[in-house]
## 1
Amino acid sequence: MYLLELDDDYRILIDCGSDFESGDRKRTPPENSPFPNALFPFDASIINLVILTHAHIDHSGNIPNLYRDGYEGQVLCTDPTFGLTTILLKDAAMLNQKRLNEINSADSQKKYRKGRKKKELPKDLYLEKQVRDALENFVPLAFNRRFKVADQCFVTFIPAGHLLGAAHILVEVWENGQKKTIGFSGDIGRKGYPLLIDPGTLPSVDYLVCETTYGNRVHEKNVTPEAALADVIQRTCVDIPGRLIIPSFSVGRTQALLYTLNKLYNDHNLPPIKVFADSPLAFESSRVYQRNIRMLNREAREFQEENESLFDFENLIYIEKTEASRTISNHAEPCIIISSSGMIQGGRVEYHVAQNISNPYCTILLIGYCAEGTLGWRLMNGQTTLRIRGKDEQVLANIEKIDVFSGHGDRDDLIEFVQKQSPDHLKRVFLVHGEMPSMLTFKETLESVGYKNIEIPHKGQTFEL
């Protein structure tokens, strides 16, 4: 979440995401903030415009609260971002309602002693009404078209890869007759990623705000998604008649997986193993992808023309109801279960992992980034026992990881993105959206190739451009 304030008292918020950090890193208002007890470190009513880079909840998830707290303007984004954000925010509101019901139920059963305060509700707990209020104000814009948002301010959305509809944001501002340009990377995608077009190039800017998720890591380069996935399936479901569980984010990652599986089945590279897509959210998201075929890469468009569907194949079964979800954890034959969340934090996949973590004929395949402390992170780091759903479980299942399905560009992709900007012209680079070791390493990397004035802002810090 970045607040851009122009000289003519016009304020633009770029992204407004939910905060998944914990402890000391949890978002808190800056010192001396006039809103110490509020969710936002500013008065929501003073914001004139919101620009959304893409749908993922760490970029979009607090937009309903912005309207709840007094924002009355528009949200600009691409059309696919609008579709995917609609699905994600409605799902978040449903989960919040369940959470609220649990809190109220627990509170109603307690007998509070005199003077005891009732449990305070979380500040970020929005419901369906706030989501509806927000979505009514979304305005979809096309890629690569300059859009005037104020008298002296223009905005352009440039494809970023990473997720359907994801964008880099170019902001052009005139102040006192002088033009200033600011580029926001959003999340930078990868070249050749399943379904998605390659990231576009930002024109020359004065200031660059760049993400650093993989600023200190390099992806595997010598294997295709099809080859990597086929190898795992052969070893875990064919050579040994076992069960393959793939924790995967419902929006973006699951579509890449299903598309790759569809290609493998189409080319007869796999035996008829059942694939369970255990996520209603993934089903809805796949429909958004199907509706936006024209915005996918050429290979995906050609595959659609030849096969009539990107994702549907004979052995694919979408699971909707919770009862059916629990049943497939003990499916008798070799099978593949794709379920969210990707980091194994809550969601249906947590149940599947809990049921199979001590099964030596089960393989859990981790296919993307896992934040520190999550179950996925602990499995990636070789923890031999796990506490899941209140029980200590021994890890006897096989744990594997591949990163060909990660939607984030790696260190080399990030360097290439920044190097489109001349070190002599670029006045400042701001590194964001990464763990501190990643940001520090990427800062050193950029300095080694000639970039100067590189900042790693702390939360609440202000810069005058």
## 2
Amino acid sequence: MVKFKSTFFLLALLITVPVFSQSDEEVIKEFYKQSLTNGKSYDWLNYLSNQIGSRLSGSLGAEKAVEWGKEELDKLGLDKVWLQPVMVPKWVRGAKEYAFIESEPGKTTTVNICALGGSVETPALGIKANVVEVHNFEELEALGKENIEGKIVFYNRPMQADLIQTHEAYGGCVNQRYLGAVEAAKYGAAAVIVRSMNLRLDDLPHTGAMTYNDLPVEQRIPSAAISTNDAELLSTMLELDKNVKFYFKQSCKQLKDVQSYNVIGEITGSEFPNEYMVVGGHLDSWDLGDGSHDDGAGIVQSMEVLRLLKESDIKPKHSIRVVLFMNEENGLRGGKKYAEVAEQKGEKHVFALESDSGGFTPRGFSFDCDDANLSQVLSWEPLFKPYLIHYFEKGESGADVGPLKNDKIVLAGLKPDSQRYFDYHHASNDTFDAINKRELELGAASMTSLMYLFDKYGVK
């Protein structure tokens, strides 16, 4: 009788307790396998880029992208999907810009420019003036009003080519784009032309956000980007003749703010439903291309994280949200609104991961966290090494998750290989044909793996 009871007990134990539990290595291997052989990210991006196209905040494309994002998240069978209202700026480019360099009356060379996001228009007939070339604000100040008033300021500081971290090179010169008009207006400049933020020499002007801060409307001056090839040309011509003139015309306008939305989907946590982990990118894009790298790639990779978790039948401990943020490019309204609502509701966010550096080959992650959490991350390096993911260091996470920062949360950013990123950033060639399917899918699998590990082991 005792022997029978013992046998019965062992059989019951075998039935109720799993005989085999997958290791972290096996789970992560499955993420990569599913992303590379049965992934959705590339197809999603194909539709977002080619059927919807550019998605500048406040545009019809942005509106369609919101509808698409909610529809696709609904199809995943998440526990919750909703739209979070956010007011966003509406800037429109208008007719295509036109510019030329005039070396002498009647002798002109057409060049490639584009209005910077947020700029005012030129007069209806355009603007033509002599040009002053500078490389920084210190040179501008040294020249003074007597040498600048009524002229076009040409900012020609290149991205620093010997910096391997290309985002560092971008950060080293982007202030001339963002604040160039404000600084030049102090000295009575008529307009501003800025060298495109691009490491290679080509004919593509790269747009991007600029600001007037609190400058009165009547003192605001037009601001445009010029391609790197044409920046080199203009600089050379100025060396030969300081009396060279520049003409350009643009018809952009800043309109009233309009209603838009963050798109949010959630898998509710099984153990800690009131502790939130977020993954996301920004749904808006500039209007010159279709925003495939910036940031369509981040959007579809983030959506794929939740899809892969569900497909793997993993029940996360924490509530995991995907957030498709609106208006990162010219206002960061979506990221700020999400953090604001989270604070109002008293939501506890413990981890946030962003992808906003393009769909190139993933190299690892940067972390905005304390040493204890970084130490835990470093212990996971062997899990990622088979996939050539080696970069795990402290650094910036992402603009949209940044507003969530506090003393407890871990913020992270996917770090793809960035050497080609600024060839496409904010330019007309940021289109779907520049995306490599395999590289995109590797990034999605890497993000899913990191989310899985943080959910399983928690934040220190």
## 3
Amino acid sequence: MKKQYYVNGEWKSSTEYVDLFSPHTKEVIAQIPQATHKEVEAAIDIAHENRKQMAALTAYERANILEHITQLFIENRQKAAEIISLEAAKPIKYALAEIDRTIETYKFSAEEAKRITGEMIPMDAAKNGANRFGYTIEQPIGVIGAITPFNFPQNLVAHKVGPAIAAGNTIVLKPASQTPLSALFLAELIDQTALPKGVFNVVTGSGKTVGDALVKSNKVKMITFTGSPAVGKGIRDSAGLKKLALELGSNSGLIIDKNVDLAQIVPKCVMGAFSNQGQVCISLQRTYVMDEVYEEFLEQFSALTNKLVIGHPDDESTEISAMIHPDEQERALSWVKEAVEQGSNIVSGGTIENGIFLPTILTNVSATSKVSCQEVFAPIVIVNRISSIEEGIAAINNSDFGLQAGIFTNDIQTAFKASKELEVGGVMINDIPTYRVDQMPYGGVKESGIGKEGLKYAIHEMTETKLVVWNQQ
């Protein structure tokens, strides 16, 4: 089935198409248009021309549009989830959970659209500030180029589209090549709202063509990107003076202290490590467990991991299915083999069966093994023994990444110490680093990127602060 991309409220064809394959069945599920550079430029021009029309909408009108999108997702919850499951092989129960989060994200965006405010500046606090009245206003920046990943093809799109609309900007969205159907379905829903045509545009195609055009265009004022550090660095180097929000890699770590309730902790760790086949930016990848509870934790963790239901993503009981591409599974397998060659032990998994990479637990993993020091983005987790909290903090900090980390402890001083010393954007006390709700600030340090997501925080990234000073003489 040939699909069309969406520009200026119209569905458009291109001269070239590529087959889109199901990651699970390997069957062709659609043919996706590959926009040319000229077609991308045309979409950017449309978004640029509609800036003033979008900026003229009141906060009330923008909020109503976002509320309508929210309602349309509620009405189309099952269909939206089935599209995710089809193109990304995400088990249907997790795809439904993603749509529930998407609904919340657009709802939060609608609410935040009404809260975009500046602040009063106490001008007379300065010696030369007498008789002056100052304040700031937040104004939309214009065209936003949104480049999104495959792993949450609705909710991570919503984290860019929702705040962009709330702030009064126009958008050109380039979805991941493996998950364009979700973005095109979003266009179908938005087409039913009062959002002016040309404000929201979806252009499918290669990152080299579509992404490069967005990054290099002088009419695009901001790039918001979620993806790999290598691509993020390339965007940074090519973007000039555009605003950037780059959500990049991670190898999230967790510390488990002694004297904690493992029965409560272990199920969270299994979910954090293996949900969506480990293809989550804040997936639990590195676990550091105190000596006193190490053996018991490993026993419970491996037992529960081995009970995960592996199967077709359409099956409501399935918890693990195929990764996004066979090449990614082979890469993950090679990383496991490297770790074993360097002295690691396989407790569970470590193989591909029936086209599915099995949930894998490794122990005694070197800090220099790829499964530890790079972003694995696969259902692989390491469990290493530590003899002190300081050792665990040092191990987590021994990383090029710093998105989120977690610690389970009953000691308040230990919790405070970890919260201050962990070099990450977010510390989860008594929770896994995979925890996220969509209104919280979300973004990392080091090679995990720059800028914050989370609706209020993303809106701030997507506006310009203008100072106004009145001289009352």
